[in-house]
Amino acid sequence: MTIIIYTSILLLLISTIDGQQSTCKANETFRSCGANCVETCDFKPHMCMAVCKSGCFCNAGYVRQSSAADSPCVKRETCKQKEDTSVCGANEEYRTCGSACVETCTFKPQICTEQCVAGCFCKNGHVRRDGNKKSSCVKRQEC
């Protein structure tokens, strides 16, 4: 009787895993232990906590189109660039992967989390006048 119960439990586990694998979409593979950080067209994690997560993950060379859980996996090179340099002001440039910690006339970050942020950033040699992201970029000497 015990063997029948163990066999039933084993078959149930196998069918559950097979069922999860069959629900993966195009360009996805089921993993019982995948990374908790998800790369998307807009975000590439540089550091990730070692947390094991089971589910469908994008195949090599593919990323999620967005951060939505049901977002399709697309080739990284097909991601649409959100670059709009026309909105950047004087002494600014658009970057797809800039720092989340902005240097200003009164603040120079010593420690910063490593993450990519897309948007307008001060050109080299320039800093924000104040902590407002919309403030102008000035040369360090002009602070």
Description of the molecule:
The protein is built from 1 helix and 8 strands, in the order αββββββββ. The chain folds into 2 domains: 19-78, Laminin (Ribbon); 85-142, Laminin (Ribbon), CATH 2.10.25. β3 and β4 (73-75) form a beta hairpin. The chain is elongated and about 60 Å long. It has one helix at 2-22; strands spanning 28-34, 53-58, 62-64, 73-75, 92-98, 117-122, 126-128, 137-139. It is an alpha+beta fold and 143 residues long.
**Number of H/I helices:** 1
Derived from helix and strand composition plus strand pairing, the structural class reads alpha+beta
β-strand percent reads 25-35%
CATH topology grouping of the largest domain:
Laminin
First-residue to last-residue Cα separation:
81 Å
Q: How many independent structural domains?
A: 2
The total beta strand count reads: 8
| Major sheet strand order | 1-2
| Helix and strand sequence | HEEEEEEEE
CATH architecture assignment name of the largest domain: Ribbon
CATH class of the largest domain: Mainly Beta
Note poorly predicted spans. 4-20
Query: Given the C-alpha coordinates, what overall shape results?
Result: elongated
Helix proportion range: 10-25%
InterPro entries: Ser_inhib-like_sf (IPR036084), SerProtInhib-TIL_Domain (IPR051368), TIL_dom (IPR002919)
Protein name: TIL domain-containing protein
Keywords: Disulfide bond, Protease inhibitor, Signal
Domain TIL: 24-79, 88-143
